[in-house]
Write a structure and sequence with these properties.
By secondary structure, the protein is an alpha/beta fold. The protein is built from 14 helices and ten strands.
Length: 308
């Protein structure tokens, strides 16, 4: 009998119209969007459904919007995983799924998280780039040898690592990575997320998380910062603090979940980014997406099959 992991996307998965079908079809999903609007004191649901895209792409809006859409789909879907994980921001969705934190607390925290991350580095001074065709050791070494602050920040899958840091250092690293046979693409983001330059954001976020009640999770949460499961609320909270200025170890997390018996990954939320990464990490597991209510029946059938 295999285990089922629910995984939740992070920033970058957003798109105008996300969650609208679930909202219109499901009272459970509608309740989540209503709760987000009430918790933030503004119509986040309207921004998700209608845009404008420029507003939706602002970090302080993107983070609560992706979280809200993911949890609306989860509640409408109505199934439970054996384990859960999320990529960066998605770890908040994983915590709501596991019951460590209330949705209302989570949506308020990710609003300030997005704001603090944006304010930690002035626009234009930080940068991120996705690196392909080079393995981890080479990317780690080149970043270490490059002058200035540039670090690997997302270990996404074999052959896909994201680097971030000061804009000039990222550019120097990209040149060195190209000479080593790698290919890199600048990412359209406004801050160097998960780099050490995010430490001021981490320090500002810490009191918000410290003062928020966390319960022990109903099922293990595989956390980004350690690529290991946590089973207490205190450890789940502490992992969310530390992940702000440290790398997302997604590749390792997925491999360890597979080693622990996971045979099916269900990606819940906008987009299909995680399913693509998981396909590159392991050829031996099932992957299915829940992006609209039209996906529910196939996902339920896959879960039933996985659990035997």
């Amino acid at each position: 009998m295999g285990k089922v992991a629910f995984v939740f996307p992070g920033q970058g998965a957003q798109k105008v119209g996300m969650g609208k079908e679930a909202h219109d079809a499901s009272p459970e999903a509608r309740a989540v969007f209503d709760a987000a609007d009430a918790a933030l004191g503004e119509p986040l649901s309207k921004l998700c459904f209608e845009g404008p895209e420029e507003q939706l792409k602002l970090t302080a809006n993107t983070q609560p919007a992706v979280l809200t859409t993911s949890i609306a789909l989860l509640r409408a879907f109505g199934e439970e995983p054996d384990v859960t994980a999320g990529h960066s921001l998605g770890e908040y969705s994983a915590n709501v799924c596991a019951g460590t934190i209330s949705f209302e607390d989570a949506v308020r925290i990710v609003r300030v998280r997005g704001t603090y991350m944006q304010e930690a580095v002035p626009v234009g001074e930080g940068a991120m780039a996705a690196v392909m065709k080079l393995e981890r050791d080479a990317v780690d070494r080149i970043c270490f040898e490059t002058d200035g602050i540039v670090e690997p920040v997302n270990y996404n899958s074999p052959g896909q690592i994201v680097i971030a840091g000061a804009a000039d250092a990222v550019e120097r690293a990209r040149e060195a990575l190209a000479q080593a046979g790698g290919r890199s693409i600048p990412l359209p983001v406004s801050a160097p997320f998960h780099s050490s330059l995010m430490k001021p954001a981490e320090d500002r976020l810490h009191p918000h998380l410290r003062d928020t009640p966390f319960a022990d999770p109903r099922h293990p949460i595989w956390v980004n910062v350690d690529a290991q499961p946590v089973t207490t609320g205190d450890l789940a909270r502490e992992a969310l603090v530390r992940q702000v200025s440290r790398p997302v170890r997604w590749d390792e997390s997925v491999r360890h979940m597979v080693e622990g018996g996971v045979t099916l990954f269900v990606e819940i939320g906008p987009g299909r980014v995680l399913a693509g990464l998981i396909a590159r990490i392991s050829k031996d597991v099932g992957k299915i997406n829940v992006e609209t209510p039209a996906d529910f029946n196939a996902a339920r059938a896959a879960i039933h099959t996985a659990r035997g």
